[in-house]
Specification:
Its cofactor is pyridoxal 5'-phosphate. Belongs to the Orn/Lys/Arg decarboxylase class-II family. InterPro entries: Ala_racemase/Decarboxylase_C, De-COase2_CS, De-COase2_N, Orn/DAP/Arg_de-COase, Orn_de-COase, PLP-binding_barrel. Keywords: Lyase, Pyridoxal phosphate. The chain is an alpha/beta fold. It has two domains: about 240 residues, TIM Barrel, CATH 3.20.20.10; about 120 residues, Lyase, Ornithine Decarboxylase, Chain A, domain 1 (Beta Barrel). It is built from ten helices and 16 strands. Strands 1, 10, 11, 12, 13, 14, 15 and 16 form an eight-stranded mixed β-sheet that branches. Helix 4 links the parallel strand 3 and strand 4. Helix 2 packs across helix 3, helix 5 crosses helix 6 and helix 7 crosses helix 8. The longest helix has 17 residues.
Length: about 375
């Protein structure tokens, strides 16, 4: 928790759970990426946290934006970004949404199959297209499935088809999995990209860009490498695989940019046991999976939780949310350690919750209000 957030929470009361974002930390994180990878353009993944104040700050800092929908494109434009700083990176788009984005001035679109490419050619003629590759997200805390991307051989064929359709076969994209703790995981994908660049170049198709995706981690309970280590590893891989013909590169950080800039203040609603002799208590908060903590699914993301009793005796608890749904349990397979002395009605702060919380919160499930986001 930053000092600015601490001071804000000390002087401000909230009846419902509230996410508080420190814009100065967001600024520092953006500048850290810009310093660690000075030749790479930052496209902030709007889906991580689309709070207008965050988008406006990043637009002022000359950030570009990774949009997953027309709504996110409009958000970026409203924040002050120009269309040339927006990439429509979702590979699953309605044709009318591609047309709307094109009308709004967006000229860069991602795809991973023939049908999506045909849509782009029909309603966004002459645009730059980026083909997404399947990528192994081994080791990531939140690995991605095969929902996005295609095999390298297919990508080569698709880029040749893009060229035939009059589109600009601009480059390739991949994603090594969200919350990726291994800076070396970009190396294999970059080797594949370099091979495709050479093959297509020999066929007269000169691609210009590699989208390195996201995956840059926020710090939760475990330490993670600094962004400088990722920059050094990726730069080394680019030189090793592309030699003196290094392409343009972009990154799409979301969690790594805003994750550690936010905390959620939550209230303990109930503490109970399921049996008189049960050594494990159940602690119910006023926020759960449906209120913004969706990334606790399969206990993938384990957030740091602070209380007013930190430093006192700890004991394992099952941590659950307030809704009448049995899946609304955050940590049960591996119980969480919290102070024995915590009591009903006290507050806890859930740290590093700046990314993928407010955007994952339901719009009133069980009548609970959506998670409110305050930027300071």
């Amino acid at each position: 928790m930053t000092q600015r957030i601490h001071d804000y929470l000390e002087r401000t009361a909230h009846e419902a759970p509230c996410l508080v974002m420190d814009l100065e930390r967001v600024r520092d994180n953006y500048q850290a990426f810009a310093h660690a990878m000075p030749d790479t353009r930052v496209f902030y993944a709007i889906k991580a946290n689309p709070a207008p104040a965050i988008l406006e700050l990043l637009a002022e800092l000359s950030s570009c934006f990774d949009a997953a929908s027309v709504a996110e494109i409009r958000m970026a434009l409203a924040a002050g970004a120009t269309p040339d700083r927006i990439s429509y990176s979702n590979t699953i788009k309605r044709e009318r949404d591609i047309a709307t984005a094109f009308d709004l001035g967006v000229r860069q679109f991602a795809f991973d199959c023939d049908a999506e490419l045909e849509k782009i050619a029909r309603v966004a003629p002459g645009s730059r297209v980026v083909c997404r590759l399947l990528c192994d997200g081994e080791g990531a805390d939140w690995p991605l499935s095969k929902k996005f991307g295609c095999a390298p051989a297919m990508a080569g064929r698709l880029m040749r088809r893009a060229h035939e359709l009059g589109l600009e076969a601009h480059g390739l994209a991949f994603h090594v999995g969200s919350q990726q703790p291994n800076p070396g995981m970009w190396d294999g994908a970059l080797a594949t990209c370099a091979d495709l660049f050479r093959q297509l170049g020999e066929q007269g198709i000169e691609m210009k860009m590699v989208n390195l995706g996201g995956g840059f981690p926020a710090r939760y309970l475990r330490d993670v490498p600094q962004v400088e280590m990722y920059g050094q590893a990726i730069t080394g891989s680019l030189k090793r695989h592309f030699g003196n013909r290094i392409p343009q590169t972009i990154i799409e950080p979301g969690r790594g940019l805003v994750g550690d800039a936010g905390v959620i203040r939550s209230e303990i609603v109930l503490i109970s046991k399921k049996d008189d002799d049960d050594p494990v208590r159940w602690v119910y908060l006023d926020i759960g999976k449906f209120g913004g903590l969706a990334e606790t699914i399969d206990e993938a993301i384990r957030y740091p939780i602070r209380t007013d009793h930190d430093g006192e005796e700890l004991a394992p608890v099952v941590l659950a949310g307030p809704t009448c749904d049995s899946v609304d349990v955050m940590y049960e397979k591996e119980p969480y350690l919290l102070p024995v002395s915590i009591e009903i009605g006290e507050t806890v702060t859930i740290e590093s919750t700046g990314a993928y919380t407010a955007t994952y919160a339901s719009n009133g499930f069980n009548g609970f209000d959506p998670l409110r986001c305050v930027c300071i």
